[in-house]
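Q: Could you fold this chain for me?
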Amino acid sequence: MTGYAATQQAMLLLGYTTPEGETDPQQHAEQWRMALPALQTVLADIRHLTRSASPLPENLAEELAVTEEVAHRVVVPGLAMHLARITGDGNGYNHFAREYTARRSGVARESRRVTDVIPVPSA
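A: Sure. Below is the predicted structure, expressed as C-alpha cells.
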C-alpha cells in the first residue's frame, strides 16, 4: 500500500469526500498537505513497537514498509486520527484514537526474552 492509498482510505473513513463519494485533494488541501507528516508519525510509532529499522516514506507515492494487514488495520485508522485532529474534528479524533490504540496493541512485536545466563556446572 502506498501513502497516497492510505491517505485516500483515511479521508473516506472520515467522510472528507465530494458528493460523489470521491476524495478531493483540492477541497481538503490542508489534510492532504499534512498527510505525509501524519503518516510518518504513525509509521514511526509502529516502527518503535516492532523495533524495525525500516525507513519512513519521503513522499506519499512510496510503498509503506509494513505488511498489508498492518497498513489496513493500523496505519489507516492512525492516519485518520491525525487528520481528524488537524481538522479539529473532535468526534472523529476520539473515535479513531480509540480504534488506533486498540489495533496498535495487536502489532507483532519482536520478542525480547532474557535467557538464562548463569552457567550450569558440568558434572
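A (continued): Helices lie at 3-14, 29-50, 68-87, 90-104.
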